[in-house]
C-alpha cells in the first residue's frame, strides 16, 4: 500500500505533465537514454507506476489480481492506455456521432448518462474520428444504455446512473442484469455473443470511472472501480462467459453448412460480365452508374476472395496507384506458367484488417469498367467522396456484403418476396 500511495502521487504529477506538455515524468524504470517523453511511457492500472511501453510486459504488479493458478492477470498495458487516453484532448467528430444516434429509449438514455458519454468519446478518440466506426461506437453506447435500463428496472431506481452500479457491492446485480439482457433461460442464452460483450464493456466503463475519479482526486471511488475490475476479471468467466462460449460452440456445430457449386460461380460470373458489358456502353444516368458500380464490386470480391469490407472501402487513391503485378522478388519462386499469369493482372494495394496492406488483382476487363466509372463519376458523386465504389452521399459506399447477395439471389425469389410484401401491406391496410 505504501508503494501504491507513492506511485499515486507520482501519477498526479505525471498527469499534469501530460496535460501541459511540459515538465519531467516520474517513472519507475527510466530508459537507457534517459528520455522522459510521455508518449514512450504508460502507467500500470493497479499500482500506478510508469513503465516504458516496450517493457511493461515484464512488470509483475504485486497489486494485480491473480488467476486460480497463481499467475497475474494479463493486459496491464491495455488498461494503462485507457487511463491516459482522455488526457490528450477532446475527441474528433463526437458531436456528429451523437447526432446520428437513433432517438429511441436506449439512444436517449445513452446521450444523457455521463459515463456512457465518456466511454463513447474515448472510442471516438481511439479510432481517430473515423466515420466508418461511428455505427460500432453507437452500438456500444446503446448496449450500455440497455444494461442501465435493465439495472434501473431491477433496482427500482429510475434516476440512477450507470456509474452508481460500477461498484463491488452491486456486482451480482450487474451480472444478473447482463444475463437478462442476453436472454438467459435456465442453461442457454438467446444471444450468447451479447453476454460475452458485456464483460469487456463493463471493464472499460469501470476504467473510465476510475480515470474520472483520479482527475478529481477521489481515491476512494478510484479504489472501488479497481475492485470492480478485479471482480470482472476473476468472476465474469465463471458467472457468464463459460456458458455463452459453450452455447456458441453448440450452435456452430449443429448449424447447416452451405457450399456453392462450381456451376453456380460460373453462372454468377457470366451474368455479371453480361450486365457490365451492357451498362458500360450506356452510363447516361445516375441509376445506370450506380448499377455498374455494384456489378464491378460484385465481380471484384469473388475474383480476389477478399473480405467484403476491405473491397467495399477501396479509395480512389488506391486505384490511381495500381500497377502490374511484376514484383521481381515474387517471380524468383514461380514457374514459367505462374510468371505468365502474373503479367496478366493489375495489382492494387489496399488497407486490410488491422491496418495491413493487402493486394487486390484486377483484369484488363475490370480496369476498363472502372475507368468508365471514374470518367463520369463527377456527374453523380460528390467530389469529397473518397471511395471507388461510392454512393451519392458525401462519405458513403456500397456494402460489399449486400451487393453480391443482390445479384446471387434468384429473380423468382426476388419477385416472390415483393409479392409477399405487397400482400402483407394490403392486409395491414385493411
Description:
There is one protein chain. The chain has 3 domains: 80 residues, no CATH class; 169 residues, no CATH class; 156 residues, hpI Integrase, Chain A. 57% of the residues lie in helices and 6% in strands. The protein contains 18 helices and 7 strands. Strands 5-6-7 form a 3-stranded antiparallel β-sheet. It has a two-stranded antiparallel ribbon with strand order 1-2. Strands 3-4 form a two-stranded antiparallel ribbon. Strand 3 and strand 4 form a beta hairpin. Helix 8 runs antiparallel to helix 9. The longest helix is centred in the middle third of the chain and has 36 residues. The N and C termini lie far apart (73 Å). The C terminus is likely disordered.
**Helicity, in percent?**
55-70%
Low-confidence stretches: 88-92, 412-430
Quaternary assembly: single chain
Number of helices: 18
Overall 3D form: globular
Order of helices and strands: HEEHHHHHHEEHHHHHHEHHEEHHH
Beta percentage is: 5-15%
Summarize the structure.
The protein is mostly helical. The chain has helices at residues 2-20, 76-85, 94-99, 105-110, 114-126, 134-155, 171-181, 192-215, 219-254, 262-279, 286-304, 308-312, 316-320, 328-331, 336-342, 364-376, 402-408, 411-429; strands at residues 41-43, 50-52, 184-185, 188-189, 323-324, 346-351, 357-362. The chain folds into three domains: 2-81, no CATH class; 86-254, no CATH class; 262-417, hpI Integrase, Chain A (Orthogonal Bundle), CATH 1.10.443.
